């Protein structure tokens, strides 16, 4: 078995495509993708914030202060003269204007006399244009002035004004510590990344060791060797599981290193405090629970690869396996789903929930025995099926 594992691993490491998927892709490509996404996203937001917005206004005479504020901000807004009966929706679709304002007649009246004023903002809010937020900045100053006028008319002091604006304030006292809060936010997302990367990293070597050997005609040579069938399967299985775990760990390591390198000092401090709160035992337990997950994926992938007639057919089978893996992970991120009752026995979901609890620091370590034991049993059953599958001549030579 170990001889087969060594042989498959050496062939794996000689393959440039495998090295790319296992090492280069996690270390370079994923950070570049996330970095490029962040760069273009920030660039798009900056452009939306600095773009000069063309606008039309109806009833501007009722909002002298707002009209003057828009005209004064000539580097942000540009007035387009249109008739009161113009089709604003069509003008916006034609990109003649970015938004239109319909001002009610009571807009400039004192709050105690005119009551609530409804300012209609016509815009296309389907894209990232930030029109509403930029207009709201100007309107908020007008609203604050109207409030001050009303308070002065009522002769209210600052204490009374504050009470009138916010009659009741809820002050929150959170019993959860910083680690638990952060763990709740990112604890469900980390298994999602780890499991999918583990699956992705194992796909290519699994395809090559089953369907690939069929296409190359080397499977027959391997079968007539004196090595027993189950040892051949276990050697291939260990190589695939190793590739999956390596890809997942390399990606997480890469993201952590690049995050520290590119983050500002305060972000490094927050990340450092959070990471230091997680004990070495929790990290070891997370890695140990990742091992049976990798075993489950490796056994499934190898079974599909052995069954497939060609490399292409194996890839089509494995593509559908991604959805099978995603659903249990997504269930672990749903509200109300935790390590209580039957959820502790649901495959893949229970490990995702356990990793989340370990990150939060709220793990009941006794339940790990049931989670780890059930996952190992499922992985063992799938490995046994894989050995059985490999012993079927009708499967090997379809």
UniProtKB/TrEMBL annotation:
<feature type="transmembrane region" description="Helical">
    <location>
        <begin position="283"/>
        <end position="304"/>
    </location>
</feature>
<protein>
    <submittedName>
        <fullName>Sodium ABC transporter</fullName>
    </submittedName>
</protein>
<dbReference type="GO" id="GO:0016020">
    <property type="term" value="C:membrane"/>
</dbReference>
<dbReference type="GO" id="GO:0140359">
    <property type="term" value="F:ABC-type transporter activity"/>
</dbReference>
<keyword id="KW-1133">Transmembrane helix</keyword>
<feature type="transmembrane region" description="Helical">
    <location>
        <begin position="316"/>
        <end position="336"/>
    </location>
</feature>
<dbReference type="Pfam" id="PF12698">
    <property type="entry name" value="ABC2_membrane_3"/>
</dbReference>
<feature type="transmembrane region" description="Helical">
    <location>
        <begin position="20"/>
        <end position="41"/>
    </location>
</feature>
<dbReference type="InterPro" id="IPR013525">
    <property type="entry name" value="ABC2_TM"/>
</dbReference>
<keyword id="KW-0812">Transmembrane</keyword>
<feature type="transmembrane region" description="Helical">
    <location>
        <begin position="237"/>
        <end position="263"/>
    </location>
</feature>
<keyword id="KW-0472">Membrane</keyword>
<feature type="transmembrane region" description="Helical">
    <location>
        <begin position="366"/>
        <end position="390"/>
    </location>
</feature>
<feature type="domain" description="ABC-2 type transporter transmembrane">
    <location>
        <begin position="16"/>
        <end position="386"/>
    </location>
</feature>
């Amino acid at each position: 078995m170990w001889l087969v594992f060594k042989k498959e691993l050496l062939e794996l490491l000689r393959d440039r495509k495998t090295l790319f998927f296992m090492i280069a892709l996690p270390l370079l490509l994923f950070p570049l993708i996330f970095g490029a996404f962040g760069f273009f996203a920030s660039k798009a937001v900056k452009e939306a914030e600095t773009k000069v917005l063309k606008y039309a206004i109806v009833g501007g005479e009722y909002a002298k202060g707002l009209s003057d504020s828009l005209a004064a901000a000539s580097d942000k807004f540009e007035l387009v003269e249109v008739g009161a009966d113009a089709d604003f929706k069509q003008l916006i679709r034609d990109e003649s204007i970015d938004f239109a304002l319909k001002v009610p007649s009571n807009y400039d009246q004192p709050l105690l006399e005119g009551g609530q004023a409804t300012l209609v903002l016509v815009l296309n809010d389907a894209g990232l244009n930030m029109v509403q937020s930029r207009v709201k900045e100007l309107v908020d100053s007008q609203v604050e002035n109207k409030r001050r006028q009303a308070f002065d008319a009522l002769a209210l002091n600052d204490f009374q004004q504050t009470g009138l604006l916010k009659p009741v304030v809820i002050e929150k006292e959170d019993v959860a510590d910083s680690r638990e809060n952060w763990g709740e936010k990112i604890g469900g997302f980390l298994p999602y990344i780890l499991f999918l990367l583990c699956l992705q990293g194992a796909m290519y070597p699994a395809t090559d060791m089953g369907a690939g050997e069929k296409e190359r005609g080397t499977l027959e040579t391997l079968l007539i060797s004196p090595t027993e069938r189950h040892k051949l399967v276990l050697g291939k299985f260990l190589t695939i599981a190793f590739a999956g775990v390596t890809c997942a760990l390399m990606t997480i390591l890469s993201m952590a290193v690049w995050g520290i390198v590119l983050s500002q000092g305060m972000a490094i401090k927050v990340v450092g405090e959070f990471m230091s709160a997680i004990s070495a035992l929790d990290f070891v337990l997370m890695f140990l629970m990742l091992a049976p997950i990798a075993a489950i994926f490796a056994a499934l992938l190898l079974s599909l690869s052995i069954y497939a007639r060609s490399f292409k057919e194996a890839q089509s089978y494995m593509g559908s396996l991604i959805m099978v893996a995603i659903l249990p992970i997504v269930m672990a991120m749903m509200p109300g789903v935790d390590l209580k009752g039957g959820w502790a026995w649901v495959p893949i979901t229970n490990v995702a929930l356990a990793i989340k609890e370990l990150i939060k620091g709220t793990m009941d370590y006794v339940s790990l025995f049931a989670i780890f034991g059930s996952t190992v049993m499922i992985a063992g059953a799938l490995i046994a099926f894989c050995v059985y599958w490999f012993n079927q001549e009708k499967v090997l030579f379809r």
